[in-house]
TrEMBL record:
Residues 163-227 form the Glutaredoxin domain. This is Thioredoxin-like protein. Residues 112-145 are annotated as: Disordered. One of its GO terms (cellular component) is cytosol. Keywords: Iron, Iron-sulfur, Metal-binding. GO terms for molecular function: 2 iron, 2 sulfur cluster binding; disulfide oxidoreductase activity; metal ion binding.
Amino acid sequence: MSTISAITSPEAWEKHLNSLPSTTLLIVSFHTPWAAPCAQMSTILSTLASEYPVTDPPTTSWVKINAEELSDISETYDVTAVPFLVLIRDKQVLETVSGSSAIKVRNAIETHASRSGGGEQTANSDAAAATSEKDGETAPVDPVKQKEELFKRLGNLVKAAPVMLFMKGTPSEPKCGFSRQMVGILRENAVKYGFFNILADDEVRQGLKEFADWPTYPQLWMDGELVGGLDIVKEEMAANGEFFKPYSVKADGDAAAAS
């Protein structure tokens, strides 16, 4: 599976850009470490990257760039806000996506990844199109296949970090009281965790309810297994005072808070 590499200097960027075949789709994520939406986008892109196998020559290449540290590169691609995605092939910008909409990002990547270097859609991607026309009618997408693909994506997403919180809003701006309480519990226990704002992706929001067989949010997952919602987490903590210890950034005897 593909992974995301960090570009840390202008020289490394030029070297990487020049090393790619003209047919490779380059997915560039501009981010800053302090912006909460960037953390969610990192989770989204890591999950998407894992769906693309490593090939020779590479079909896709995934990199991330700190927009503030490498401001010259940011200016080259008109990055004025983060997260910001740039899709490039043969050193030409194909599309940009500003913001943290998982649907827009996924659609953009899938659209351009399915096209050859000459800009023509391949036979395989034609066959995999969401709809096809026959005798003037539009054939619906196969719901079974669509569900299988969604569940595969969700299976990767719940494993994106050892502790994953699916919540309404972001840790800095929770959109419901239960999500706010869950974030508070994780912070109090210095837990390092990934998060996903289910309000930004309705496909995940609805699909995860069925995938997890759990109808409400927030949902806390640990090592790819569902723990449950706020009440269950509180019960687990009451029964086991060291419930979060394996996932805490605190060393034994160290009272430092999670960053």
